[in-house]
Amino acid sequence: MKVPSPGESIKEVEIAAWLVKDGDYVEKDQAIAELDSDKATLELPAEESGIITLKAEEGDAVAVGQVVCLIDTSAAKPSSSKTETATPKTEEAKKETPVKEERKAEKPVAAKETYASGVPSPAAKKVLAEKNILANTVKGTGKDGRITKEDAVQATHSMGSPTGGQRGESRSKLSMLRRKVAERLVSVKNETAMLTTFNEVDMSPIFELRDAYKEDFKNKHGVGLGFMSFFTKAVVRALELYPSVNAMIDGKEMISYDFCDISIAVSGPKGLMVPVIRNAENLTFRGVEVEVKRLAIRAREGEITVDEMTGGTFTITNGGVFGSMLSTPIINPPQSAILGMHNIVDRAVVKNGEIVIAPIMYVALSYDHRIIDGKESVGFLVAVKEALENPVELLMDNNVNKGLEL
């Protein structure tokens, strides 16, 4: 079997996990491996039934079209009774030997107690004095228990107060998706003139609309009336007012779009996924909520495809679901801007000359200054703020029932 192509631009994938063992009998269309690309994770199904021979290891990077396993289609399917060959006694015997060896290794060799035990060497004494660590809190590993310089240095690593707690560490290989995300984020910081502008939004009008209509909306459409539909509609309106934010640089050219493909950042089992809502300018509140729900479920269940994450002209990310108050989101290349949502907190604000309590969200727009000027970036974010604070007029044409399709 050869590695299939997950997408047009993908030339290499990584074997994240084999779901079968070498020599297993596999059925046709059975998932035998998980493959990581730089955009998504996909399953590799068996093309035929038979005995499988693996030709690559977990973690290997393999080219599209490379042979990763062989399936002997002439092999007969083994009966289930023959698979259990090891007796319980044999398994127990295998387990007993290393346990006994471990117990023998656990017996410490008694250190010879002499005048040198617990006494630091001159170099160790200097290190301990600089760090204000008492010698009797450090265990010496030198001859006859003398405290060496290495012992003193190691003690400084534990802040001079050994507690006997575990201090283990582990290493694991980054997935291809995580490595690619890291490369892209670093390239954005190095290759763009990224700036961030901030504003705050009074969410009271949206809260009032949701409280009044969320039950009717859910009963009518089968999905909840969330914040993402309001933000998506507000972003689409702002992109139409400031088209340079809905553009990107390609070499010495600027590409402008007459449609709004909105990427939404979703946390998935393999890391951050950014599926795309196509032609968001044509969607109603119901249409946005249905699409957001569909894409989020597919991303979290690992079923999202490369095509569903390809493209996008603008990104919305919501750090508020994790409790973030404020952040500077990083642009999703090759796009030129990204809107960051944050948590909603009751704050003291001034309205009509009086101090009142209102649910406030801080919003951030990171943008590429090479293509978007300060006037456009600030104007765009103000347009988003205006639409969110006056959604009935600016997003629903002064008709809530029509806007929500009730």
End-to-end Cα distance, whole Å, is 53 Å
Shape: extended
Global Rg: 30 Å
CATH class of the largest domain: Alpha Beta
Q: Helix- and strand-based class?
A: alpha+beta
The CATH architecture designation of the largest domain is 2-Layer Sandwich
Q: State the CATH topology of the largest domain.
A: Chloramphenicol Acetyltransferase
Order of helices and strands: EEEEEEEHHHHEHHEEEEEEHHEEEEHHH
Approximately how much helix is present in the residues? 25-40%
CATH evolutionary superfamily of the largest domain: Chloramphenicol acetyltransferase-like domain
Overall number of domains: 3
Descriptive account of the structure:
This protein is of the alpha+beta class and 406 residues long. The chain has three domains: 12-75, Beta Barrel (OB fold (Dihydrolipoamide Acetyltransferase, E2P)), CATH 2.40.50; 111-163, Dihydrolipoamide Transferase; 177-403, Chloramphenicol acetyltransferase-like domain (Chloramphenicol Acetyltransferase, 2-Layer Sandwich), CATH 3.30.559.10. Helices cover 32% and strands 23% of the residues. The chain has helices at 88-106, 122-130, 149-157, 176-191, 204-221, 227-241, 285-300, 306-309, 374-389, 391-395, 400-403, and strands at residues 12-18, 25-26, 31-36, 41-45, 50-54, 61-63, 69-72, 194-202, 247-250, 253-256, 262-264, 266-268, 271-273, 276-277, 314-318, 337-341, 344-351, 354-368. Strands 8, 11, 14, 15, 16, 17 and 18 form a seven-stranded mixed beta sheet that branches. Strands 4-3-1-6 form a four-stranded antiparallel beta sheet, with no helix packed on it. The longest helix has 19 residues, at 88-106. The chain is extended.
